[in-house]
Amino acid sequence: MQGGSSGIGYGLKYQARCISDVKADTDHTSFLTATLSLKEENEVHLIRISSGGTELVCEGLFSHPNEIWDLASCPFDQRIFSTVYFTGESYGAAIWQIPELYGELNSPQLEKITPIGDNVGKIKCILWWPSGRHDKLISINEENLFLWSLDMPRKAIQVQSQESAGMHHLSGGAWDPHDVNAIAATSESSLQFWDLRTMKKTNSIERSHVRNVDYNPKKQHILVTAEDESGVCTWDLRKPKTPIQELPGHTHWTWAVKYNPEYEGLILSSGTNSTVNLWRASSSSEDEFTSERLVDSPTRANQLEPLLHSYIDYEDSVYGLAWSSREPWIFASLSYDGRVVVESVKPFLSRK
């Protein structure tokens, strides 16, 4: 099923690649997004869905000195977030704090709490502890994993442990919400699994060009990958030789995948074909959806189709995806031309 955008939009001034749900904001449905301009002063936008649900409102606009390649909101403090940025010569990362009086200022300055890992290589992403208040962070660069301990009162961060991943050219990763000692890291040729207690690799899945990975928050051992050639694949880590399910993905590169935080089996994917796909994926060959039923058509045949909907009203590649944890039927997407679109998937949800 295909369709244009029925959602609400918001435009950034420059090109952009990353967007994050503000999980710690329990009063509003909020997202952070940021720009990617090499020559201009970049911006971080705090946007919220209006009380009537009809528009996206900018609640804060903050200057950022460099182009932003990765952004993640702190899971326990809505004013704190991390960025990975490129200065034009090298990559860096930092933790930032939004000023308390941002609603009354025209051009508020972000407070830089601490840089992360100066001179530790080409950082790709920052991972926050999956849930709750904790002082641990992970940075992933092309060849190394670092586990950091963050001291907020002292505004300092230090390496707790680190390990080389070898010449695998790591590109990103995800922290297992069911086992906080485990992470998955993507690379050019494999998906790697690491134990943070020993900082050793425990397993790997040999796959070419895995772009993105996300754990199923509702089922242990289950995750999803975005891959250049195979599209979208779901995996059971107890049987890692072959995927549970291979979905066709996108007509060009599949770039991002996200499991819904609440509705079992609901997955978003996006790619360089200017499309966002909504999938109903199984977690095993015998899977049945119990607490929630996903519907697309009154016919049984269509209900079994994994593709529920394609959102095609984009003019550029879609690199950024974020589900709302506060309203899990809502997601935000970000295309490279700086366009944010927020959509509701309620038409595809039906309670028994």
UniProtKB/TrEMBL annotation:
GO term, biological process aspect, one: protein ubiquitination
Pfam families assigned to the protein according to its UniProt record, in alphabetical order: Beta-prop_EIPR1, WD40
WD repeats: 247-289
EIPR1-like beta-propeller domain sequence ranges: 5-279
Alphabetical list of PROSITE patterns matching this protein: WD_REPEATS_2
Record's keyword terms, sorted: Repeat, WD repeat
Keyword Transport: no
Domain of life: Eukaryota
Family according to the record: Belongs to the WD repeat EIPR1 family.
Record's protein name: EIPR1-like beta-propeller domain-containing protein
Source species: Cannabis sativa
